[in-house]
Each structure stands twice: as structure tokens, then as C-alpha cells.
Design a protein that fits this description.
The chain is built from ten helices and eight strands. By secondary structure, it is of the alpha/beta class. The strands form two sheets. Strands 3-2-1-4-5-6 form a six-stranded parallel β-sheet. It has a two-stranded parallel ribbon with strand order 7-8. Strand 1, helix 1 and strand 2 form a beta-alpha-beta unit. It is globular. The two termini are 24 Å apart.
Length: 231
């Protein structure tokens, strides 16, 4: 499979390593240009490209950059990307720690619905609730006892099937968490966030989630904090 990855931070770099190791053809981009990705390319065999090239890379495009930076991507980034290409959003909203205030999310739009609006393309939310180190190290073969599960949300069943397959390939069970309007169940500070539950545990955690965003996860005028969070 050809996979474009926009973002080479914790999650983006980890997915580049894992997908390359599985034999996929990975095209990776960041905001600083392909020349800054030479080390990652040499390590993994991935092809460093521009953001625009990553959006045209092939079967799947994964957007894994700080949420506040999504609005800075070119407005026509996916204008000519074929409609059958699956776009994945791994992002989380950290208003106090990193992103500042995004009013539409504060007013109740799910994080990935907001991303979808910025990109002008349907997205599948995935890989957002697990720490990068765990994503890299804790994958296990299918059927392994206690195999960690990852929730995904989206409105296109075919697109979700592609993402579920990729999740399985990197060593995790996938759990369908519903449509994108239900993706709040896997946002930061929900019971499934930052956990390593198996499939039953993920389903239970999703069911226990509350849609209300706690005050500490809302924007304030305070400067960013120093919390440890999944990328």
C-alpha cells in the first residue's frame, strides 16, 4: 500500500517506521521540508516529500500534526486527491498545553469534525489515544492474549475497513467507535484515552465516556502547561 504521512513527530515518525517495516511504501512530509527528513528516510526507507506530495501519495494519507496547525495547511491540499483515498486524523485538542482556543471545538464540535472541515475531506479518527512508544513497541500478533485495541471513528465504512486493517497489521485490534459525531468518546480525558485496554476494555471505556468537556480541558488565557500527552 502507498501511504502518505503529513507530520513526522512522535506518532508520525512511529507510523513511518512501522509501516515501512511492514513493506508499505511511505511518503513522509513535515512543515520544514523534505531535506529535514533525511535521517528518518535513511533509517526507514521512507521517501521524504512535500506536504502537497504526501497528500497525493496513494491509498491512505495520515494527518498527524498539532491540531492548531491543521488550519495552516493549504486550503486546496486535497482538492485533486482521488475520492477513494482514505484520510486519517490522529489529532487531539490540547487547548491549555499547546493549541490555544479553537472556538468551534469549545462549542461542541468534535475534534475530528473540525479537522474534516479544515481539510474539506471526510476523515477517520485513529491512533490518537495511544502513546507513541506503546504504538511502536507493544503491537502483538492476532490472537495474542491481552492484545491492545485502538478505537476508530468515521462515517465511511469502507474507509474504516482500510484503517482497521492497518491497525491489525501494526499489531493491535481495532474497535469501531461509531461515526465521527461519536469520536468525542476517544478524545483526551475520556476513559479510553492514554490506555492500553484490550477490545472489551476499549468498548467498556467508550460506553462510559462523557461528552461534557471538563474545565481543565477548555481553553483559558493561561500559558501552555507541561503535561505529558500522546502526540
Amino acid at each position: 500500500m502507498k501511504i502518505g504521512i503529513i507530520g513526522a513527530g512522535n506518532i508520525g515518525g512511529t507510523l513511518t517506521r512501522r509501516f515501512c517495516a511492514l513493506g508499505h511504501k511511505v511518503f513522509v512530509a513535515n512543515s520544514r521540508g523534505p531535506e529535514t527528513l533525511a535521517d528518518l528516510a535513511a533509517e526507514t526507507g521512507a521517501t521524504p516529500v512535500t506536504v502537497e506530495q504526501a497528500a497525493q501519495a496513494g491509498d491512505v494519507v495520515i494527518v498527524t500534526i498539532p491540531l492548531k496547525n491543521v488550519a495552516s495547511l493549504p486550503g486546496d491540499l486535497f482538492a485533486t486527491t482521488p475520492k477513494n483515498v482514505v484520510v486519517v486524523d490522529t489529532g487531539n485538542y490540547y487547548p491549555r498545553q499547546r493549541d490555544g482556543q479553537i472556538s468551534e471545538i469549545e462549542d461542541g464540535l468534535t475534534e475530528s469534525q473540525w479537522v474534516e472541515k479544515q481539510l474539506g475531506r471526510p476523515v477517520v479518527k485513529a491512533f490518537n489515544n495511544i502513546y507513541a512508544e506503546h504504538l511502536y513497541k507493544l503491537g502483538r500478533p492476532p490472537g495474542s492474549p491481552g492484545r491492545i485495541a485502538l478505537p476508530i471513528a468515521g462515517d465511511d465504512a469502507a474507509a474504516k475497513a482500510v484503517v482497521l486493517r492497518l491497525i491489525d497489521e501494526v499489531g493491535f485490534n481495532g474497535v469501531d467507535a461509531g461515526g465521527l459525531d461519536e469520536s468525542w468518546r476517544q478524545q483526551p480525558d475520556t476513559p479510553v484515552y492514554g490506555t492500553d485496554y484490550d477490545a472489551d476494555g476499549v468498548r467498556s471505556a467508550l460506553a462510559k465516556a462523557s461528552k461534557e468537556r471538563k474545565p481543565e480541558w477548555r481553553a483559558t488565557s493561561r500559558s501552555p502547561g507541561t503535561y505529558e500527552v500522546p502526540a
